[in-house]
UniProtKB/TrEMBL annotation:
The lineage of its organism: Bacteria, Pseudomonadati, Bacteroidota, Sphingobacteriia, Sphingobacteriales. It holds the Pfam family FKBP_C. The keyword rRNA processing does not apply. It comes from Pedobacter ureilyticus. It comes from the Bacteria. Keywords: Isomerase, Rotamase. GO terms for molecular function: peptidyl-prolyl cis-trans isomerase activity. Belongs to the FKBP-type PPIase family. PANTHER family: 39 KDA FK506-BINDING NUCLEAR PROTEIN, FKBP-TYPE PEPTIDYL-PROLYL CIS-TRANS ISOMERASE FKPA. Residues 206-310 form the PPIase FKBP-type domain. This is peptidylprolyl isomerase.
């Protein structure tokens, strides 16, 4: 998460003690932490929200703060009283609030069973901050409104991306300093620390390596730990709550040259048995597009161990390129 949620909501949640949780339609519960005093959201408005999604056990299931990207979407027609579209009409621009959607009501109204992950929960919990509410003028044509909104949010997105790009060097610098790393920097801009050089010949393009790895972001979450987004270590995956049932864990094979440039470069720097921590700037990673849980202009940190280096055989089919950071079939290869 991009700022500790304790810090991020210190002012708003600190005031919550004097607020009582209110009841809404359909079993909804909500609490407004900060009232921005603006006109409430209506159907057809386009909103920009930051939010944290949790279950009743307070486990974070999703957060726009993780990838520093608020969500923009039009407010649709409610399906039933107390659903997600309905609850948004309680808030306006500048508001911060926590609300609990009643899952029993949702199941009854939509004629769909509760999702498996919520089968023992009564509520799904959201803490939201309404960043922007874009409203249609009283006599404005739909086409004019859509163009005006599109122009606004396109410019807003560009400004956000420019901000992220400018902030990247400071993120890398802070990570290096906070962890007291004595890094080396390659001509490409890759920063790294070799903790074990390994033995034997280093891998080159076309070789296959078997690796253990853990990938994480450069900023700490609300638990004061660096958020892991993928790992080949099942124990670490479970602790970081990124475990994928059915996925094979343990040493992962990947072809040199089949991953993003920074990861490929790091793989070539140590031999069999070698260990390296690589800090990969976005230009050597997922760049301005990002991918999956990785936001645009995100520097990444990988702890890598080369378990084996396998030279190609003329008669052998090439090994499948396994991604470091994503499952083998999701289209993203580090």
């Amino acid at each position: 998460m991009k700022k500790s949620l304790v810090i991020l909501f210190a002012a708003t949640l600190g005031l919550a003690a004097c607020n009582t949780e209110k009841k809404g339609p359909g079993g909804l519960l909500y609490k407004i932490h900060k009232d921005g005093g603006k006109e409430k959201i209506k159907e057809g408005d386009i909103v920009k929200l930051n939010f944290i999604q949790k279950n009743e056990k307070d486990s974070i299931l999703g957060s726009t703060y993780d990838n520093e990207q608020a969500q923009v979407f039009p407010v649709g027609k409610k399906q039933y009283a107390g659903d997600m579209q309905d609850v948004l009409t309680l808030f306006g621009e500048g508001d911060s609030a926590t609300f609990k959607i009643n899952l029993d009501t949702m199941a009854a109204q939509t004629k769909q069973p509760k999702p498996e992950q919520f089968k023992n929960d009564k509520y799904i919990v959201f803490t939201v901050k309404v960043e922007k509410v874009f409203k249609k003028g009283p006599k404005e044509a739909d086409s004019t409104f859509q163009k005006r909104a599109g122009d606004f949010f396109q410019a807003d997105f560009k400004a956000d991306m420019d901000k992220k790009k400018a902030a990247e060097p400071a993120k890398i610098k802070a990570y290096v300093e906070d962890n007291n790393l004595k890094v080396q920097t390659s001509p490409s801009g890759l920063q790294y620390v070799i903790t074990a050089p390994g033995s034997g010949e280093k891998a080159v393009d076309g070789d296959t390596v078997s690796v253990n790895y853990t990938g994480k972001f450069t900023k700490k979450g609300d638990d004061k730990k660096y958020k892991v987004f993928d790992t080949s270590d099942e124990k670490v995956a479970k602790e970081a709550k990124v475990h994928q049932p059915g996925r094979p864990y343990g040493p992962t094979k990947m072809v040199i040259g089949g991953t993003v440039p920074g990861f490929t470069e790091a793989l070539k720097l140590v031999g069999k048995g070698g260990k390296i921590t690589a800090i990969i700037p976005s230009k050597l990673g997922y760049g301005e597009q990002g991918g999956g849980p990785i936001a645009p202009y995100s520097p990444l940190v990988f702890d890598i161990e080369i378990v084996d280096v396998i030279k190609p055989k003329a008669s052998a089919a090439p090994a499948a390129t396994a991604p470091a950071g994503h499952s083998a079939n999701d289209g993203h290869n580090h």
